[in-house]
Structures are given as structure tokens and as C-alpha cells.
Please model this.
Amino acid sequence: MKNKSQGLSNSQTTVIVAMNIIGFAVLFIPQNATELAGVDGAFVTLSAGLVSMFLAGLIVILSSRFPNETVIEYSQRILGKPLGKLYGAVIATHALVVASHVLRGFADAMKVLLLPKTPLEIIMICMLLLCLYCIHGGISTIAKICEIFTFPILSIISITILFNLPEVQMFRFREAFSSGLTPFIKGIPGVSMAYLGYEILFFLIPFMKNKKSALLSGTAGLVLPIFVYTGLVFVAIGLIGTITTSELVYPTIHLSRRVGTSLSFVERFDILFIAFWILAVFTTVTIYLYMSALSFTRLIGLRNYKPFIFMILPVTYILAILPQNIAHINILTKVTNYTGLSIAASSIPLIVLSVIRKKGDGHNG
Amino acid sequence: MARKTGILLLAMTLLFISSSCWDQRPIEDQAFIIGLALDKGDDPDMIKVTFQIAQPQAFVTEAKSEESFWNISEEAEDITAAQNQLIRIMNLTPTLEHCQIILIGEDLAREGLHDYLDFLLRTHEIRRAVRIGVVQGKAKDILDMKYKTDLMPSFVISEMMDQNSRFTFELSDFMNIGKLHTAFTGAYDFALVRIVPLEEKLDMSGGGIFKNEKLVGWLSNEEMMGLRFLRGDVGTGYLTVDLTEDLGKRAMLRIYESQSILEPEIRDNRLVLRLKIRAEGDITEIVDQKGRLSESEFLPRIENLFREDIEKKIRSTFAKLQQEYESDVFQLKEKLQSYYPEYWQQNAEGWDEIYRSARLEIEANVLVRRIGEIRY
Model:
């Protein structure tokens, strides 16, 4: 669906990236950060965010050299047909696996926190049907949904952070930076996996209205996740303590439970939090499924991706059902995270190759 | 036509999906457990769990003859088993979501808390801000008492802990489940507020000292005040001091603003605790006031007396905690880990020794602002 006269506005690009990143990881980012980096978790989260911002910028620069093509097409131009098709297939499969992984993680969290008796399959099918409906509308529908959802998701997370901020015990942060650079080196790769989601930028440039400001709006999409994640990790470490946070499975839910305890009319704020978090997961799954459907369509050389959505949906469901318990899910998490990071980092060799082989316009080079 | 059928079908599907039938929880079928009391069971391996369950029907009409709550005691190996045994007695599903308070009996506390509290930390139903207190006696007795002010004991106790700790120094609601979890994972000691069941009423004051998650001793009212100053969670309260002969018998100060900061410092390889206290208040009572001094002479002298009194109380609390029980319930270990990480990494095993030989330095500042409505 390429329309030259209209397209995604700048703010829409930003929110697509932001909503894609803020998804499943919101729930356990404090646990991830403190396990890898200890008390420096908050600063490591901030640095990982800046690194991801840099990588996102590289992806935009690369895509801007081919303003009318998505990554599937221009990777074939840079790497040659067979290698390019392989690269495209990797991206398509990766998006599919991430979508099913997020779906499964979401359904598991639902079972623990909210709906213990509902069968896992039903939760996943309901979510998938809704995502199908949204993808069918195209990228502009997805963009509008992301725009609408930004405000509620952001306000709920902000309330959680702000309400817990006065109770943070600052003395816990005194030993920050005391172990030198080791926490950063160990932590930044691990935590930047929570910021994955900006791979959508590989695909968005052809659909944008102002391609010249793509760099600004694309990287601005990371500002929101940086605030959200760093704030949550900071409050969790200050309130609950480093070791304890690394032992909690869903620390963010505990933070949201403390909201409203001094007022007597909101006893279970965490239910509200979960309700809005479902919106965030919905946007993430939708965007990854869209990426996957689009990639498979373009790989084969067709233009209309709508039939492909129907074909991808059962595959997503089967992949999501496969893990048997939380150990399998952790393995899947590791696999998708490393693949995602490699794909994001692969923009560097692609840029280099495209310059060397003199492919691509000089647009915004 | 096909489009209209499609929309109708979609609407009906969405209706079914959004009603979440599997997890429906009609509120009449829920048993809201509002308070938990844990004691040692009659059988040595078992614990006795007393659930206080709220009865919403009692609030509906003027039928106050019905009790608004009921207590069920179950003896079981742990809390999960006890909750399962509730199914055998009533037709309601128990839920801990609105639990207000958790009380631990003295005998169970002396044995050790760790084994029995895992369920409370692992379940998603309990909020981490639920308050927890230790009872000098059987925890069940507190839940069984009749209270005149409010209908349900759990709410009464929880509100007492929350509100009363802001008006007096003698009790504190500092500990809740979340902080207990932090204490378990980091191996810190803590102090829980103490509740004493008396004949017809309860007395909430002082605290229980826990070392290695076992109850080892009690803190009296005055010592709880000292602890709150050491820990830093001071609010408002009263201070009574004996006056010198020429001034009168006793004076009482109402402290309406106070701050205290405790900082550890390593000086000459020895742990020094620097405590800075600031308290402001008005004089509310002077018993048998003798002299007719002007305010400018009177106030500094009485400020001095109050200051010495606070310092004395804090030092005696500290000595008791340090020498007699050897437990640090005021987050000292946590602070030391944060302030001096390298020192901690080198000397972690010798913590008991370090704590025993620590010194306390107090810098107190008591300001008396007003003396009430009468001058002499």
C-alpha cells in the first residue's frame, strides 16, 4: 500500500517505533537490568537506550539511501539476489518468531496475573484475531492505533513511576559506579535487547510523507522507551533493593500495586496497569506480524500482503504454543534477542557495502 | 448481504470473547480474607492459620445482629494447605486480595519466619504493602477481640498501625511484606511492631527484635522511640522529661516535626554511626512548675534537658540492640553496603564483630518553639 501523495507523518513514525518497543519488556525490565548490572541497572538501562538510538539511526540512514524500497528489495540490490533473498528470509522469519514469542509471554503473564482459569489457547487466539483485524487495515491504520494508544499507556506508566518516586531510598544508589565498567559491559548488550523493536524502521521509509526528516522521527521513537524503562528500573532499585528486584518475576506489577495505597478508593491499581499494558502488547504483536507479512510478500515478489496475513496467523499460533514451560520460553527469548540484535547491527555492514558498491541514491546519505 | 452477516457474526464473536467466562468471579462467591494470623499449631509440625473473612451482607441493612466477619482457624503444614482446607468448610472461594494485615504469634516467630512466608511472597494476590506485626501471645486472640470503634478487627489493626504511628513514637508501621522480602533476600535484621492482647483490648506499642528471621527479644515503648530515631522514620510524638528541682517536676513536649539521618562512617578501621537529629515542638504540659523564669532563660534550659533525654534514650536502645541482641534493625548493614562497597566486600564475614564494636555519635538539636496558652 504505497501512496505517494499521503503517507505516515513524522509523529506517526515516532509512535510506531515507540509502541513497538514498549511491549512485553515493561513488565520485567527491572529484573533484567538488576540481574545483569546490579545497582548500576538504571544507568545501564539509559546507556543501552542510547546505544539502541544509535543503531536505530544507522538503520534509518541505510534505508534512506533507498527511499522507495523496503529492506527486502534493497538488500537484494546490495548483496545480490541470492544473499539478499536469504537476508530477507531471515528478517521475515525473525519477525514471525518474535511475534509468537511476545504473544506467548503475554498469555503466560495473563494467566498468572489476571485470568488463571482461561485456557492459554483462547487468550492467544483472541489477541491474534484482533491483530489480524488491525493489520488488514494497513500501515496507516496501525499508525493511527499507535497514536491513540500512546497517551493511555504513557500516563499509566508515568503514574506508576511518579507515585513511587517519593518513596525511593536514595542511599541504595550510593554504591553506583563502584564496580567500574564491568556492569556496563555485561549489562548493555543484555538490556539493549529490551529496546528491540526499531527494526520496523527497515520498512517504514517508503511509506513516509517527509522522507527527509526520517532520521529525526525515527530516532525520536526511542526517547519514550528510554524514559519509561530507566524510570521503572530506577524506582524499582530505589524502592525494593537490588537483590530483591532481581528475584521478582514481574517487578513492575509490584510497583503499580503500591500506587494508591494511601488513598482509599484505588485498592488495585495493578489491574488498571495490566489493562493498559495489554494495549502495548497488542501494538507490538501487530507491528511484528505486519513486518513478517510484508517481508514474505515482497520476498516472493508480490505486492498485496493481505492474503499472506491469513497464512501467517496459524504459523504464529503454532510457534506460540510450542514452548512447554517457562524454561523453553527463556531459551526462545535468548534466541530472538540475539537474532534481533544481530539484525539491527547488520545495518552497519550493509551501509558499508552499499557505499562501496555505489548502490543507492545520495539522499540523506 | 454477506457483509451484514459478516458484521453480525463479528459482533457476536466479540461479545463472547470479551465476557471472559472462564475467569468469572461473582462477588457473592468470594470469601475476602481480610486478616491472617499465624501461630504454632497444637501439633508440633503444624501451624495454625486463622483467617478473618469479611461478610459483606452485614453492612447492607440495619441488621447489626449479624457479625460482619468470622474467623476460621485451620491447622495445617503451611498456609497453602490451610487455605485449601477452607474449601471443606464453606461454599465460598477464598481470596487474599484484600488482606489488610498479617499477624504472627510469638511462638511461631521464635521458631523462624522463613519457612512459612514463601507462599505470601509468591502469590500474586497479596499486595507487598500489607502490614505485618508480631503478637506477644497468640495471634489468634487479636483477631477474636471485639472492637467498639469499627466492625472488623483487621481494618482496626491496620489503620491503627498506619495512623497511630504518625502520632506517637511508640509504635511503627515500617515493616510490610515487601520490606520483609528485602530483609530475607539480603539477610538483614528487622523489627516488627508488637501487639499485646490484654483482657478486653489490645495494646500496640514497642516492637519485636528479629535476628536471622527469628524473634529474639522485645523493645519497650521508649526503646521503640529510640529505634525510630535510629532508623530515620520519625514523625510526630510526645516526649516526657523530668525537670530539675528548681524548674518543676516534669515537662512534656509535643514534637510536631522531626528528622533523623543515620550515616555510617569508617574511621580508623572502625565503624562509627553518625546520627543527626532535629526535633521541633511545643511544650504541652509542665507539672508543678516552680520558678517564674522568663522565656529566654527557661527555653534554652529545657531544650537542653530534652536533648539530653533523647540522647539517653537512643543510646540505651542502641546499647540494647548492639550488646544484648546483636541485631541491627535499622538498615545499618544495607547502608554500609551502599556507602562503602569496597570495605564491605573485604570485611563481609566479620559483620558481627564490626557491629559489636561500632560507636554511636549523636548530634541532636531540639527546638522548643511555643509553650501553649499560659505563661506560668
